[in-house]
Amino acid sequence: MAATEPEPPTTTRSRAKDHSPWNWLLFVPIVVPLIPALYNSDAPRILGFPRFYWLQLAYILLGVATTTLVYRMTKKRGGR
């Protein structure tokens, strides 16, 4: 008879699955900069910068605000 090796214990990895509808908001800062109609002209200029450049800064602020909002709305409340 051949000795059989014992099977290692199966461990189930617990992954946090958050199916919150708030997560859909994270697509906003991804999709909005992909719309060329928003920045395909030179005017208006703010402090001498054409629309394309100051809209890039606005997209960064949009991304930060959206990410912060989604984080705060989906964060688990511990102990309360």
TrEMBL record:
<protein>
    <recommendedName>
        <fullName>DUF3311 domain-containing protein</fullName>
    </recommendedName>
</protein>
<feature type="transmembrane region" description="Helical">
    <location>
        <begin position="51"/>
        <end position="71"/>
    </location>
</feature>
<dbReference type="Pfam" id="PF11755">
    <property type="entry name" value="DUF3311"/>
</dbReference>
<keyword id="KW-0472">Membrane</keyword>
<feature type="transmembrane region" description="Helical">
    <location>
        <begin position="21"/>
        <end position="39"/>
    </location>
</feature>
<keyword id="KW-0812">Transmembrane</keyword>
<keyword id="KW-1133">Transmembrane helix</keyword>
<dbReference type="InterPro" id="IPR021741">
    <property type="entry name" value="DUF3311"/>
</dbReference>
